[in-house]
Amino acid sequence: KRTCIVIIETTTDGTSGAGQTQSTQQMGIVVDAVSEVLEIPPAEIEPPPAFGARIRIDFIKGMGKIAGRFVVILDVNRILSIDEVAVVSAMQQDALT
Hints:
With 97 residues, the chain is α+β, with helices and mostly antiparallel strands. Helices cover 20% and strands 42% of the residues. It has one domain (4-96).
């Protein structure tokens, strides 16, 4: 079985002494396969459609249109839990100190 590591960037909201903060975190996730990597211009991304009650769209960020076909764009910040992102962030901070 062949697996791949995909590098993703997540965004987290938080608070600090200076008020609301937003930070980005790069991390790798292991996936079973990658069929292709696409660059989709923002103008070609539409909001997720309402598929109906049987399919949850919580984890879909939008639908990208490229070369006459649609691809589903997942919302990484919703797929990964806040706890998982916090663990990775803490590990990164430990590595820097």
